């Protein structure tokens, strides 16, 4: 983990996901050791779209604890993101403004919602080390686009899988994983269990998501016959 | 009840409406490394159980498969598969939809930014 820079600088140019409102809260964030973030950073390297700009960032001023200068967003994003942010589901903290853009390209105005940015900043500054490490994993982790593309090609049989399609599907899949893991954690607290999540929790979470209709109905049942 | 997380398995596309050109061998653990970090980020242990990761991978692959099949069904009416089909499929799920539009707009502006950067470099090159 590059401690010389804020850990979010390298990550933020792509992972602008707002953390979902976890139903458990802070309970599971205790006593978690530092995650293997060097490997986590590795996922960004595969992302040929996003990492070039991020690594060029010149930010000597970011040694201080205040990361606000790095919360730059291109103006284009502001216009589109404001429309998206306005309609955003309220249970998500809007953290999309944290994009790391090469400052040589010009200082862009921050995204439409400085109030939410400020709120996010206030929250982030109070994170413990464990929470910060987990949040960093959350932001930086991603499914590899190459693997996803390979999977999509094999499913559809067509070679013409565009890059935006791969990106979209990776994003959808990541959020799906999030739903699964969080529901599994809820199941665990209900059963008053602790420790790593076990497959039975995931299966129960999957069943609940299916009842809620968040899992698309399959024409042929392949799992859990 | 078949346990999807046991052993090595080559998963051929059973029950797919489209005929596959070859039988597709899916290796185990395509997304394992990424999934481990992702699950930690979402609330699991720093080291999730391998069987849990395998199960989540299976579920995700199934989800993506179903999504892609449905998108293909929609897209076939239009002629070819496009991003719009996927967006249509998740239209009911607001967080996902918002996230996808955000990702797409980000990708667009990164493309613009990179293009602008290259243009600047060219200018610098000619003036030197």
From TrEMBL, chain A:
The gene is LOC110412549. Pfam families: TAFII28 (PF04719). CDD domains: HFD_TAF11. It is found in: Nucleus. SUPFAM superfamilies: Histone-fold. This is Transcription initiation factor TFIID subunit 11. The keyword Nucleus applies. Residues 123-208 form the TAFII28-like protein domain. TAFs are components of the transcription factor IID (TFIID) complex that is essential for mediating regulation of RNA polymerase transcription. Coiled coil: none annotated. It comes from the Eukaryota. GO terms for biological process: RNA polymerase II preinitiation complex assembly. One of its GO terms (cellular component) is transcription factor TFIID complex. Belongs to the TAF11 family. GO terms for molecular function: protein heterodimerization activity; RNA polymerase II general transcription initiation factor activity. Keywords: Activator, Nucleus, Transcription, Transcription regulation. InterPro entries: Histone-fold, TAF11-like, TAFII28_dom. Residues 56-68 have a biased composition (Polar residues). It comes from Herrania umbratica. Residues 1-73 are annotated as: Disordered.
From TrEMBL, chain B:
This is Transcription initiation factor TFIID subunit 13. One of its GO terms (biological process) is transcription by RNA polymerase II. It comes from Herrania umbratica. Residues 1-20 have a biased composition (Low complexity). Pfam families: TFIID-18kDa. Residues 1-28 are annotated as: Disordered. The gene is LOC110427698. Belongs to the TAF13 family. One of its GO terms (cellular component) is nucleus.
